[in-house]
Amino acid sequence: MTRDELTLEDLIAPYRILEGGRDSPPGQRHAHVAALVVDDPDLLAVVAAWSTTEIKWKMSRRAMPASEKISARWRWIWLGVEWDVADIAEASGVGLEVARAKVLQASALRIIYPDGSVNVWAKAAMAAMITSGGRRTGGKRQRAGKAKA
Fold it and tell me: For the chain, how many structural domains are there in total?
């Protein structure tokens, strides 16, 4: 496949494999990103806003890195992403600079994707927060009726 035939989905497919899901080998799961999302309210808000905001992608004119380093190719893919920081800030309720910084953090950690999607583990953590009424979930579970004082 030539460079001109590549789609965004073709380019991000290897990262989705690394992200992993229940069917992925344990060494390929990146579930730790979920902890980052639930522990940082600004990051949580920006990640939630990411999938509701218009994101455009056009392949960068720069040459695709020949490097085997997956991070170099990820940065190259992100060169073609267009997003409006004001839209993210408005949708997330954070300031412009915070929105910009959190999008950069989330993209570097592969919590958000250039197609407007969100890492499966981050989505699962956000869904768990919703079902728990906004409380963080995780840690040791207590049996029903056996609350610790």
Answer: 1
User: pTM for the whole thing?
Assistant: 0.75
Whether 117 is covered by a domain: the verdict is yes
- Residues 8-19, mean pLDDT to the nearest whole number: 78
User: Is residue 148 included in any domain, yes or no?
Assistant: no
Phi then psi for 93, rounded to 5 degrees? 80, 15
Alpha-carbon distance of 64 to 79, in angstroms, equals 10
Asked if residue 37 is part of any domain, the answer here is yes
| % pLDDT > 70, the chain | 77
pLDDT class of 143 with cuts at 50, 70, 90: very low
Q: For residues 30 and 110, is the Cβ–Cβ distance under 8 A?
A: yes
Q: Which residues pair with 146 in a beta bridge?
A: none
Contacts of the segment 31-35: beta carbons below 8 A, 24+ positions apart: 31/121, 32/121, 33/109, 33/110, 33/111, 33/119, 33/121, 33/122, 34/119, 34/121, 34/122, 34/124, 34/125, 35/125, 35/138
- Asked whether residue 149 is assigned to any structural domain, the reply reads no
In the structure encoding, which two tokens stand for residue 32, read together?
Answer: 């730790």
CA atoms within 13 A on the CB side of 143: 1
Tell me which residue of 78, 87, 84, 88 sits closest to 46, measured CA to CA.
88
